[in-house]
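Example 3.
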Amino acid sequence: MFHKLTQKLDQSFQIDPVDAHCDIPCGIYDPHHALIGALTVIRMVDLINDVVKTHGEGSTAEFINSMARYIAVKEEHAELTKHEIRVIYGDFIKDAHIEKYPQLPGLVHKIMQLGSKARQTVNRETALDLLAAVNEFAEIFWAIKGFETKVVKSPFPVSEDMVLPIL
Amino acid sequence: MILRLLRIRGHSLFPDFREGDYVLVAGFPFPSGKIRVGDKVVFRQPRYGLLIKRVHQLLENGHALDVRGTQIDSTDSRNFGPVPLSQVLGKVIWHIRQKDT
């Protein structure tokens, strides 16, 4: 009875959660999704600029539809990039890693800020800066894991650098 | 004394506490005195946020806590070390369980 009452209270007033946090100890972490997110943001900036060139700034239904879809994907992938980096930083990175790579907290903060700026603007330079910061994070991540890395050009419509592990 | 009502999220204290249970948490000074081994405490961990765990040991004359979950993969003092008392918001004084499903 008390639980049902509290649940009703929760639905009305949104009771704060407290985490009984668990990590699955499989150690599966990879900055790949963050890289794909950052590359997608660049692609969406390009597509937004293209659709403006093609349709002008007219408000046809097709223009509005395309623009809305590109913006939605840009928002989603900038946030995905931030989320993936937060998870690796929060769950995988330990104090000893930060001692060895003292630039990590600043770099993660920079990624958070660039991710937000990428959402707020349609700026290719910002999107490229976000990718560069994520690549820097990936390089450190793989060094911690004991893997050397290589820089390859992404095999997508956006051909930019990606830091990948040599497995 | 500050009282907080919080909702459990996660499985680190399963089966004692289940996701969706509620807890009433009392801040300092506690009605039942000091924190003891076995108490469930809520604290703000700088990296993981607001957490609930069981007190496993009292350290530094009671100024820090070694906290544990019940699961092998619980994120607890084995990951983030002792919890200073200054980070503790309070201890659970009422556990509102959901009915068995």
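The interface with chain A takes residues 4-14, 17, 19, 21-23, 25, 42, 47-53, 69, 71-75, 96-99 of chain B (CB under 8 Å). The longest strand of chain B covers residues 49-59.
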